[in-house]
Amino acid sequence: MNLWTNEPDQCKHLAKPSIPQFVVSCSLMGWLLICYLPQWARIVSRKSAEGLSTYYILLGSLSGVCAVGNIMMLPSSAVELGCCRTNTRFACISGLLGMLQVIFGIACFWIVLFMYVYYSEEEADAEKHGRRASISGPDRTFRRAKRAIRVLIAACSFAMSILLISAIILHRFPWVAQTWANILGIAVACFACVQWVPQVRTTWHLGHLGSLSPTSLCLMAPYTWIFGINMMIRVGQKDWSAWIVYVLVGTMQVVLIVMAICFAIRDRNLAKEGKQHCSVPPEFEGWNTVSTWTSRSRQTSILSHRASNVGPDERSPLIRSQLSPREVSHKQANHHS
């Protein structure tokens, strides 16, 4: 069985593409770009990845890899690719729009991954060299920078593994392509569900969104639902693994939007009372913590322990001694005697 060979009758339904569906698909891709622009801008403006859960970034990247593998392994995608040999260019592009939408959406999230890694490193370097103070405190900033590199390595390694396995199946074992696509679809759904749980938990404990853009969430939630419905119509209920993830993701995004509204109302009420919300202490790591608390982790960074030559610090005595060096030596001798 050759997965890439298609009979002429298999391409008849793609030879005359639906113009309204083409317009809707292109509009959804443009909408997705608009959804991610506020998120990218918020990270750049804050110059910090504070508020973004490490597990959220990692699981989102893994979920995206599985989503690309899933859409590439579906027999319907193979038919659309094969029909590009016989159909017109417009019909070919129209048939591939579903696949392109998935790949484009994952590419946008991977930009968030790269920005997370870059600004985690940049913020830690700025704190270390004294260019500016980190938003979330030295300890959390340095730990986040270390984890960011591990997240990037893990995501890239996972992507190479999935793509290699998918290529082998397509060329050597094409009859198990549908099964492998369903497995990847289930993995996408699992990753997507678990992905948003640590982000919701981290946002709840922080009491604010941090570098997570509320505008992006408000734009992305309806897009997720509409795209999920569009994929459901395109591939049908048989290929449920291609659209079930968007229903689950859309639900979690609505939860974050509700939390953002609650935080905004709380901050507004506190502002009327002349108060300000006190953020969570620097020791909080939420789901970003991979080990139990130790006494050392509750201490502030060594960088914050530098003695100041301008004014007293927290380790300086409240009342300084006014005795001369000779009187101090005499007092110490009497004390030892």
From TrEMBL:
Keywords: Membrane, Transmembrane, Transmembrane helix. InterPro entries: LAAT-1, PQ-loop_rpt. It is found in: Membrane. It is a multi-pass membrane protein. Pfam families: PQ-loop. One of its GO terms (cellular component) is membrane. The chain crosses the membrane at residues 22-41, 53-73, 93-119, 151-173, 179-197, 209-228, 240-265. The keyword Iron does not apply. It comes from the Eukaryota. This is PQ loop repeat protein. It comes from Exophiala spinifera.
